Amino acid sequence: MIDRAGLAEFLRRRRASLQPEDVGLPRGQRRRTAGLRREEVAALCHISADYYSRLERERGPQPSEQMIASIAQGLHLSLDERDHLFRLAGHNPPARGATGEHIGPGLLRVFDRLTDTPAEIVTELGETLRQTPLSVALTGDTTRYTGPARSIGFRWFTDPGTRALYHPDDHALHSRFFTAGLRRLVTLRGPGSRAAHLLDLLLARSEEFRTVWAEHEIGVRHQDTKRFVHPEVGDLELTCQTLLDPDQSHQLLVYTAVPGSESYEKLQLLSVIGAQRLVPQAPPSA
Predict the structure, then answer these.
(1) 3-state secondary structure of 71
(2) Are 41 and 172 within one domain?
(3) pTM
(4) What residues are paired with 252 via a beta bridge?
């Protein structure tokens, strides 16, 4: 059963403990609220301010598991705090570990400060959970995919558009990297895992994957520099740094360019262009 009073009290106290800069929001002037405003929390949780306010006032219907998961992420809760929130709302907490998608608050705090560089948080299967605006401008919105296509390794062998973002000379290495990585996960997670399901799908759909899989490679690593091919700014050479959250097997990938390089200048241009793509002009009418 839902503990309305306990849920409301926990939400109020957690909201009051957060500052705008803790969640990547500007503080602004004339701020009198102790912590975040309800409207700010609602925006972070992707729910209406009215709905969130009713929860804090012990009103409204019992929130769904999906709603509680969104609130837990928006409030930057730890796994223990997330599980507590689920129980207060009358639900069993989700499983922890590699299949979980709740991003730890420490990783989020780092991510929220990366406003001027391409960065993303991904699962061990290469599913994008969060992107900075410059990451969206670089590779498109990769959080929009559903089903197996959420995994970049799956898209690599099934969607030609994914390959178009990377330099052709690196395609063979990418194929080996994604295949070897999936082999490691299938062995680690075992039969019945999501990794094993992706393996079955790729073996059925991609001849190239079957060929690379038959090589039985393991431990294939990317080069330090990744080469992208962007439709507006052209070729970019970016260094990828990785920060790992071992509790959830999430990775924060941060892409940077050497200051003063051509790729650095192109990133500055890309930050201006944003996620918009140039639209071809219609030919003049006769």
Answers:
(1) helix
(2) no
(3) 0.85
(4) 121, 243
